[in-house]
Amino acid sequence: MKCEKYQKMISDRLDGELSWRKGKRLDRHLASCPLCRNYLAAQKTIQQEALRIGKADYHQAWWLQFEQVLQEKLRLAAGQPADNLTAKENRAGHNEEKEHKSKSKKWVLRPAVVRALSLVLVVAVAASFLIIYTRQGQPEELPLTMMLSYEESYLNLGQVLGEDEATAGDFINSLEESILEETMSDENGKVPLELEFDLPLNGYQEEINNLQIEKESLKEGL
Amino acid sequence: MRAEEDRQLIEQARQGEVEAFMMLAKEYEHQIFELTYHLTANREDAADLTQETFLHAFRAIKGFRGNSSFRTWLHRIAVNLSLNFLKKRRSQNSHFEDVDRLEEEGREKELETVRKMPSPEDSSLSQEFRTNLEKVIEELPPAYRATFSLVVLEEMSHQEAARIMGCSEKTVSWRMHEIRKRLKKKLQPFLA
């Protein structure tokens, strides 16, 4: 208990906070207490070692970059035109926009997607013609307005599918399924439409293969 | 002289002059970075917190009344941001969650692990000692670590550290005593 009090004084002394009077008392105690002398020596070692650790300085170049970023942030905070940042951000934003556009363009222009969309359109148009012209006892001509309406709908559909890869994938799958169902219910047992399933899109390859297997097994089942 | 220069720059920064504030930032950035690094023990976090400190200070400089020095004020912002950051990190990191429990339950076990370490040669003792010292400092509760960083590593007086920490000088003094006792206890095997 007595030493605890002096060890607290040792701590204050190491921080340069011990008064002259208390310092005198501590010195008297240290002269007669090996335990506290040992404590002081240990604390000095710890303090010296602590001062050697944790130096995390960086090179001048790092600091220059740090200051540049900080200055740009401060300018933004001050509502000033942060030239560097604005230019960079503009460039970055512009590039990002361009990249986004080119990505979406690229996506739309992917052969697989084009083929899928064309397929959808062809199937849809062909199905509508088949439905209308093969109706028994109703060989009436398809009105032009209806044709245009169908075409417009399919174009809209194509546009929607072109904007969302996942939806397009789901749509193609469900379309394939419905066609396969249709095939199964065909009276003649023939496949009325030969569909191309071989879409060279890597992400879908496995799924496509599965579909092909399913298609084959369905054909065999028929 | 420094205080006078600071005062002029602060006045200009109050008017929204970024360049003036940048001069102040350049003067203190190393100190703030060191402090945040000591508190977080992570360079990236320290860099982010240093940026945040200056940004915070710039936004709040109109409210700086000059009751304390700019350095103290800046350090206070840095400590508060760092403690908040550590609080968040602590809730995300189970290691920090266990600090208090370790205090009570695991101290003996940890000491046992340290005791079992092979006795190193004198040449490598210092490095091993420092590694363990870093570890023990890192395991201190955030407020204690901040106090230790300010007093020992930043070499601040108890009065200045108390201002930054928002506590009394006596609290700083007691915390330092407690930290030292803990450091000695945990590092005893290397101090023989």
Explain how this protein is built.
The complex is a heterodimer of chains A (222) and B (192). Chain A is an all-alpha fold and 222 residues long. Chain A folds into two domains: 2-52; 111-221, no CATH class. Chain A has helices at residues 2-14, 20-32, 34-52, 60-77, 83-109, 111-133, 144-163, 165-184, 205-221. The radius of gyration of chain A is 40 Å and the shape is elongated. The model of chain A is unreliable at 85-109 and 189-201 (pLDDT under 50). With 192 residues, chain B is mainly alpha-helical. Chain B folds into two domains: 2-91, Orthogonal Bundle (Rna Polymerase Sigma Factor, Chain: A); 98-191, Arc Repressor Mutant, subunit A (Orthogonal Bundle), CATH 1.10.10. In chain B, 83% of the residues lie in helices and 0% in strands. Chain B contains ten helices and no strands. Chain B has helices at residues 2-14, 18-40, 43-60, 70-92, 94-97, 99-116, 122-138, 142-153, 158-165, 169-191. In chain B, helix 4 packs across helix 9, helix 8 packs antiparallel against helix 9 (158-165) and helix 9 crosses helix 10. Chain B starts with a helix and ends with a helix. The relative contact order of chain B is 0.10. Mean pLDDT of chain B is 83; it is low at 95-99 and 110-123. The interface between A and B is large, with 36 and 43 residues.
Could you name the key traits of this structure?
heterodimer, A: 222 residues, mainly alpha, 9 helices, elongated, B: 192 residues, Rna Polymerase Sigma Factor, Chain: A, Arc Repressor Mutant, subunit A, 2 domains, 10 helices
Which geometry of chain A do the CA atoms define? elongated
Counting DSSP H or I runs of 4 or more residues, the number of helices of chain B is 10
Radius of gyration of chain B: 19 Å
Structural class of the helix and strand makeup of chain B? mainly alpha
CATH topology of the largest domain in chain B: Arc Repressor Mutant, subunit A
Low-confidence stretches of chain A: 85-109, 189-201
The SSE order of chain A reads HHHHHHHHH
How does the major sheet of chain A shape up? none
Q: What does the average pLDDT of chain B come to? A: 83
Shape of chain B: elongated
Give the tally of β-strands of chain A.
Answer: 0
The CATH architecture assignment of the largest domain in chain B turns out to be Orthogonal Bundle
CATH class categorisation of the largest domain in chain B: Mainly Alpha
Tell me roughly what share of residues is in helical segments of chain B: over 70%
Low-confidence stretches of chain B: 95-99, 110-123
